[in-house]
Design a protein that fits this description.
Helix content is 54%, strand content 17%. It is of the alpha+beta class. Among the domains are: 160 residues, f41 fragment of flagellin, N-terminal domain (Up-down Bundle); 87 residues, no CATH class. Helix 1 runs antiparallel to helix 7, helix 2 packs antiparallel against helix 6 and helix 3 runs antiparallel to helix 5.
Length: 403
Amino acid sequence: MLTRISSGQQLQQSISAILDQQARIGKTQLQIASGERLTTAADDPAGAARLVNLDQAMAEAEQYRRNAELAQGRLALSENVMAESVNILQRARELALQGNNDSQTPESRAAIAFEVRQLLDELVALANERDASGEYLFAGYKGGALPFSKDAAGNVVYAGDDGSRAVAIGPDQQVVVGESGTRLFRAIRNGNGRFAVAPNPANAGNGVSDAGAVVDATAFTKDNFRIAFTSPASYDVINDTTSTTILSAQPYSSGAVIAFNGVELHIGGTPAAGDSFTVTPAANQDMFAVLRNLAEDLESGLMSPAALARFHNGMNRTLAEIDATQNHVLESRARIGMRLGAVARQMDVNEAYVLQLEQTTSLIRDLDYAEAAGRLQFQLTVLQAAQQSFANVQNISLFDYLR
């Protein structure tokens, strides 16, 4: 049986083999040029799908990185504000002690008050600190609004809100990057932080009270009390909340302990009959008011014995409030510092996660250059052989087949 020989068919097969090999070579050359193993999704559909997921994860990780850097910057600024606030309050305390000395004159106290008002302005400026993007740190959600300013009466007013801004710095990690000005600067407990002692402005004697302290928390109740002097040597303690007298005709001596409701305080000097001191639960005030009150007390001018007693009462209370304010600021600074630590730790976690993503992506996407170079050399050799075969086919005649 004779076999039908088609030289055209052989020629076409040779051409197809050459074209296929050239396509393989082109693909390998493209891989080498790009450095990527996958030039199209068809090269490895499963790998391409994984790369899509990995790219999404990398984009999320990049967002977490930017958020963490934002958080780190804002928190570092906030911590610095708290540190500077402590310095201001410490200087104010030194000035209060200096001004409370009876050797001071009205003129020297006025000079001290001038410095206190400068400290107040510095504190307001700190409370209006901005971040790198120009947003106010302590305005709550109103980052574009000036949070603190003085009204016509010299009172510092707040225009922000009570929101606390937070950003995501990890898949399951958020951090507060902006506390409200209320929490940081306005939620300061007056008096000693538990209760406040205040003289009646109409007192005629020269009794002066300290800030007192809670000595028995189980007995302490948040009622309003009044220490009423019936004579320079005797006083009653009245619960104004319940309108009951809880201590009657108590003997008084200057500097002796007065104890009731789980608290102790000391009153020195000689109160007059009818003089009184209130003891009320601590309430919130802003730290600016503490400095403003200090300046106003120092600006009182010439004083009668009764006015001097009111001055010392005010200064004693202010000193206690400065101490309470410093403690509040130190607690706030510690809270911010803990957040900074959390951000730093999460940044380390994020960096390790990104490295893992990059390594996994590289295994799927990146080209093994040594393997590709060897493959290209082999493909070129095969192409050369195919081209030689094609040339040989072209030179074969019918008589060559019939030999």
